[in-house]
Amino acid sequence: MEVVATEFDVQGLELDWACVAWDADFRYAGSSWETYEFTAVPNKPLMRWTNVRKEERKTYLKNAYRVLLTRARQGMVVFVPEGEREDPSRRSRYYDGTFNYLQSLGIEVI
Q1: Which of 73, 81, 104, 110 has the most other CB atoms within 10 Å of its CB?
Q2: Predicted local confidence at residue 2, as pLDDT
Q3: What range defines the domain where residue 41 resides?
Q4: pTM (2 decimals)?
């Protein structure tokens, strides 16, 4: 990988190849997309995923992934992590629905 970029960095660009890392903030769960943000737990040194409730923020997350997924001209790799048993912020269930959905669309697993 040569350059890491956010949706702000790539907006308006056309890239030959792209690799999109998919996190647990935008997850496919059964039949719909769910939106989360990683936030601190009050009075504890912990972080956790919490539901995004504001429609404006939900739309923002959806559009961020849309921008990232529409930049490549020749090809793209979409990386969805497997999850980690030891890390409660990266549980497999946060990623499995998205991985399975993308695979059901015909995206080749490499």
Answers
A1: 81
A2: 60
A3: 33-104
A4: 0.83
